[in-house]
Specification:
- The chain is mainly α and 155 residues long.
- 46% of the residues lie in helices and 4% in strands.
- It is built from 4 helices and 2 strands, in the order αβαααβ.
- The protein has a two-stranded antiparallel ribbon.
- The radius of gyration is 25 Å and the shape is elongated.
- The relative contact order is 0.14.
Length: 155
Amino acid sequence: MNLRRISIGMLAIMLVAISSMSAVVCAEEDNAASSALLPVIPVGQGEACVEETGFMRRNHMELLKHQRDETMLKGVRREHYSLKECLNCHVVYGPDATPVTVASPSHFCRSCHDYAAVSIDCFQCHASRPESGDLPADHQPGSVLSVTTSVSGSD
């Protein structure tokens, strides 16, 4: 009788241990899967963005529309929230060391817009990459800051 109790007790301990390990493995797989589903957002190359990252993620379109209205309706051109300045800082380089266009899935704007299934119509009229003369010296291919790194979609 004692041997049977010991066997049942050992079996119970082994089942608890196996189920605990499988729960840990499943949790790790869930974390990996959920982070794999987030967009990979290239890091900007400037000192700092014109606004805090979370604010820009939520409000960039409103800022760009306001800038558009100021320019188109009032003739006021400011660089602070201009699309051109966004592209200069958030330029992504392709394998040939030239800035990618919006046709590339690695383009800064497409990283989130594709994820959110939102179409981008800005580039029907505007250039989707900076002209080489528009980039500051520290943003040129080969400069220290031109190395593209990326982060998951965290604030």
